[in-house]
Amino acid sequence: MHADAIFAVEQKIETIEEQLLNAVNLVNDDELFFASYLHGHFDLVIVQTMAQPEPSVLLMDTIMLQSLGKAFANGELTPDEQKSVYTLWQTLIAE
């Protein structure tokens, strides 16, 4: 069961990573910025998630939301930009 959970997380990481890297093909500069911003957080979240005894997609989502929450509480990005980053994350984690 543990190996299956790790495989599921690794598959999700691979999918999200691919989508974030493909952001360079976006024509909208704002979307590219949001994807790049999120990618920086995502790299840290991967490490934190996989370091846990029971990594899961739900845990990865929780860690990401905590990471973004801390960054935004420190004044990173405007409220509209924050909403766009959250929306992008919700799209990526749900797919």
Record keyword descriptors for this entry:
4 helices; 95 residues
Helical content stands at over 70%
Tally of helical segments: 4
- The gyration radius over C-alpha positions equals 13 Å
What spatial form do the alpha-carbon principal axes imply?
Answer: globular
* Total domain units: 1
Distance between the termini: 22 Å
Largest sheet at a glance?
A: none
Strand content: under 5%
Pick out the low-confidence regions.
none
Instruction: Tell me the structural class.
Output: mainly alpha
Q: How many extended strands?
A: 0
Q: Report the order of strands and helices.
A: HHHH
Q: What's the rounded overall pLDDT mean?
A: 92
What does this structure look like?
The longest helix has 22 residues, at 29-50. The protein has 4 helices and no strands. 79% of the residues lie in helices and 0% in strands. The protein is an all-alpha fold and 95 residues long. The protein starts with a helix and ends with a helix. Helix 1 (2-21) packs antiparallel against helix 2 and helix 3 (57-73) packs antiparallel against helix 4 (79-94). It has one domain (2-94). It is globular, with a radius of gyration of 13 Å. The protein has helices at 2-21, 29-50, 57-73, 79-94.
In short:
The chain is mostly helical and 95 residues long.
How would you summarize the topology of this molecule?
Blueprint: H1 2-21, H2 29-50, H3 57-73, H4 79-94
